[in-house]
Amino acid sequence: MADREGEEQAADDLVGFDRxxxxxxxxxxxxxxxxxxxxxxxxxxxxxxxxxxxxxxxxAAMSRGSAPDHVLxxxxxxxxxxxxxxxxxxxxGTSLRVTSGPAIQHAGDLAAVLSSLTEGEVLFIDEIHxxxxxxxxxxxxxxxxxxxxxxxxKGAGASAIPLSLPRFTxxxxxxxxxxxxAPLRDRFGFTGHLEFYDDADLEKVLVRSAxxxxxxxxxxxxxxxxxxxxxxxxxxxxxxxxxRDWAEVLGTGHLDLAAARxxxxxxxxxxxxxxxxxxxxxxxxxxxxGGGPVGLSTLAVSVGEEPETVETVAEPFLVREGLMAxxxxxxxxxxxxxxxxxLTPPAAGxxxxxxxx
Length: 357
Ligand SMILES: Nc1ncnc2c1ncn2[C@@H]1O[C@H](COP(=O)(O)OP(=O)(O)OP(=O)(O)O)[C@@H](O)[C@H]1O
Fold this sequence. Notes:
Layout: H1 2-13, H2 27-34, H3 48-64, E1 71-74, H4 81-92, E2 96-100, H5 107-115, E3 122-126, H6 133-145, E4 147-152, E5 159-164, E6 169-174, H7 182-185, E7 190-193, H8 199-213, H9 219-227, H10 233-249, H11 257-266, H12 276-288, H13 296-302, H14 307-320, E8 325-327, E9 330-332, H15 335-341
Parallel strand pairs: 1-6, 1-7, 2-3, 3-6
Antiparallel strand pairs: 4-5, 8-9
The structure holds adenosine-5'-triphosphate.
């Protein structure tokens, strides 16, 4: 648990690092995002499997006139979990109550939220994997029996007064479904896993966002932005806003391919969506360590970053893209790494470097 929180804290701290390709968002950015969120399921781009399954769950519940099963949404940040939770409430014609694992410090906080729900409401619990254990246990009972036990008194004289709850639908969101305890996972009748988006779907996200923002976006520019967005609508929308800034300040105001390329060049986002940190890590791996294997700490020091930063911010995307591999002896470059950097790999042979992790 401590490690898990440490990692997330490290990732949260990095919001201040101001990466235009970060998949997380701060409060200011979330406000900008609100205007771009699809409101109904038919507006939600991509994720056909989750969308179709969810549509079925909702339609069946509506035709029965009852609240649907609880829904768990998992997947990396920025892929649309919060958006889907809002859509679920909108499709059901009910209101959405929002909380999050870290916001609930004590079981009593959750009891207060639960006991104020009204019939049929949707309760969205973001980062549900970060709920404290007592709150988690309270949630099991609430989800299964629609009841909370209010503890009155302390010690031996304490007693539990059961309080029945209206039928509600819990929607949990997590970036780490694997860390959710099985008893909690099992209480969700439907689990949807969101995948990274392909470029064609990201283009659709961009075209939709441009329309909402009143931007004229050329098809080729949409394609260019999509291909640099790391499979993530949040990043696509952010890059669109940055390209618009560039076009308004330095360009003609028109968002064409040249404007997209120039703007993304200014923000140092390359054609595969790598930014300065990603490239610094890969360049160090190849030029200083002959392509590895090299330990995470050594690699991080060589680019002047904390190991957590490299591990949680740069590495997941680089590994997913096949631009870096993890081996028991450390991080290694792949043939794609050398090609992407335009470097020639050394002739086959051993490595000169020690590995520290
Ligand atoms: N399928 C989609 N179609 C259109 N826009 C989308 C889609 N998915 C996400 N977006 C846009 O991306 C932004 C981020 O989405 P959202 O906040 O739902 O992600 P999330 O998975 O909840 O992220 P986090 O885990 O960081 O909370 C939203 O502003 C939304 O407009």
